[in-house]
Design brief:
Strands 1-4 form a two-stranded antiparallel ribbon. The chain has helices spanning 2-5, 28-31, 62-66, 77-116, 132-135, 149-173, 175-183, 191-215, 221-247, 249-260; strands at 16-18, 38-42, 47-51, 72-74. Helix 4 crosses helix 9, helix 6 packs across helix 8 and helix 8 runs antiparallel to helix 9 (221-247). It is mainly alpha-helical. The radius of gyration is 30 Å and the shape is elongated. The chain starts with a helix and ends with a helix. The chain is built from 10 helices and 4 strands. The chain folds into 2 domains: 2-75, 2-Layer Sandwich (Alpha-Beta Plaits), CATH 3.30.70; 79-260, Fumarate Reductase Cytochrome B subunit (Up-down Bundle).
Length: 261
Amino acid sequence: MKSKLLNREHARSKYVYLNTRKCKACWQCIENCPNHVIGKIDFHWHKHALIIENNKCSGCLNCVKTCQFGAFSKVVETEGVSKKSQHVLMPFLVNNILIISGFIMILSGLILQLGFHVGRQINSNHEMTINYEQIREIKTSKMVLNFNYYDWSLVHKCSIIIFSLLMIYHIYIHWKWYKGVFAKRLIIKNFQAISLSVIFLLVAITGLVPWFIDLLNYNSILKLILIELHDKLALLLIIYLILHVIKRNNWFISAYQKLRR
């Protein structure tokens, strides 16, 4: 009996919420409820109203108007949505946009790597003033899916920025988890997630720094080295991202089901 009375369904319906602590057991709400939604606990040492038939509540709000102690209040329709947005919707959106931007980043990177590079690698005999496109023999005029090299490069850079910002936010909201892993020395147990974070940081740095060097119109051997590292690390990042998403597949399914309710 006790566990049943403490059930949440006895404190609210679709339209009203009952704060039993404010109830003074005057029973006016029971007398004014047309659908007999409200019942009572009437022990000598424990008295208050409770909602016994929440599915019969029609939202007439007679209980809210009748109760002079404010025990009943109207359920705000956006209350459930706001809580859902806070705990489920935002992480669900961020994670899905992460996947989409990550897919675009990977696709554009592979197209740049495989679609435009002819195959000749860096030669130490080349002068440092030679452009990266010349050293790698990139066909900048070639078209892949109606986009040339510079178009795909722009898509790749924009997707890196979006992915990086979302990853920073993702790490930020999971910062307590990171601190706990390091504080409790659980790095080995969470090696995959920690490795993914480290590889992401390295890929972001080796991808963005050459871009900034290029914006400054400064040709440097450092730019070429970083781009080569970026290409190799990006392949490793793809593997870790796929494993990370697969491992959290159940979370995506449960979050989607919660949002549909």
